[in-house]
TrEMBL record:
Belongs to the glycosyltransferase 31 family. Beta3-Gal-T subfamily. It is a single-pass type II membrane protein. It comes from the Eukaryota. Keywords: Glycosyltransferase, Membrane, Nucleotide-binding, Signal-anchor, Transferase, Transmembrane, Transmembrane helix. It comes from Mya arenaria (Soft-shell clam). This is N-acetylgalactosaminide beta-1,3-galactosyltransferase. Its EC number is 2.4.1.122.
Length: 250
């Protein structure tokens, strides 16, 4: 698949700012829209809101995009790295990927805050099989766990997002925590599928997402990544192969 076919040009945020029974799209910019859902507001209802949003994306936009990204509003996404990661991956196969958690679901599930990417085929299957056959809760529970249950039941394959050095590219907690946590005592070690998710080996130089980024920190991340160079430090050449995206066996 040619890289230019990757479609990630439109983004959505989900909210319930107006009392309405019908979801609506409100144009905010040329490339962003807001989806107003009829679900109750609050963290306790994230499962219902994300189910609604994924169903809406499938029904209204399934022919427009190859991949669908779900993340929180405090998730910083490096789109260039994500595009490169997906460029050679077949969106016609049911798959999804993110920061891989190992509990509660046989094949594991992807951290909601770290963000997860669903192929267009997996989106089709989770809506038509997972959601319609009750493989996960309609509401309540933990959104990422419940969506993971429905994706697994509908046949979606988990793909590894480790880079070729074995380092994580999606990050479930703050960058500071990932970097400074003691791997022996940090709570994430009991959840993370892969062992190199904390300490100095936590993070790939080709990372895709960072979680728990405050609004003011978004500006800092962006400036350091896109407008800062360190004189005297030569960047290594980009490897021929950065990501492998092999299926993960439970």
């Amino acid at each position: 698949m040619k890289r230019e076919k990757i479609k990630l040009r439109k983004s959505y945020s989900i909210s319930r700012q107006f009392p309405t029974k019908i979801a609506r799209e409100i144009n905010k910019t040329d490339n962003a829209e807001m989806l107003i859902t009829p679900e109750k507001e609050g963290r306790d209802h994230l499962t219902a809101k994300v189910r609604y949003a994924l169903t809406y994306a499938y029904e209204k936009h399934r022919h427009e995009f190859d991949w669908f990204l779900k993340c929180d509003d405090d998730t910083y996404v490096i789109m260039e790295n994500l595009r490169h990661m997906l460029a050679s991956t077949d969106h016609n196969k049911p798959s999804y990927m993110g920061f891989h958690m190992k509990l509660l679901v046989k094949n594991g599930y992807m951290s909601g805050g770290g963000g997860y990417v669903i192929s267009s085929r997996a989106l089709r299957d989770v809506v038509r099989i997972g959601f319609k056959n009750g493989f996960c809760l309609l509401d309540g529970g933990n959104e990422d766990v419940e969506i993971g249950k429905c994706l697994q039941a509908s046949g979606a394959q988990v793909l590894s997002t480790l880079d070729m050095s074995g380092e994580e590219t999606f990050h479930a907690v703050s960058l500071f925590e990932h970097l400074t946590a003691n791997p022996e005592t940090f709570w994430l070690k009991n959840y993370a599928w892969n062992k190199h998710s904390m300490g100095q080996m936590c993070c790939s130089r080709y990372s895709v997402t960072y979680h728990y980024v405050r609004p003011d920190e978004m500006y800092i991340f962006h400036h350091l990544l896109y407008h800062t160079e360190v004189l005297g430090i030569l960047r290594p050449p980009v490897p021929d192969k950065i990501f492998d995206l092999q299926p993960v066996n439970p």
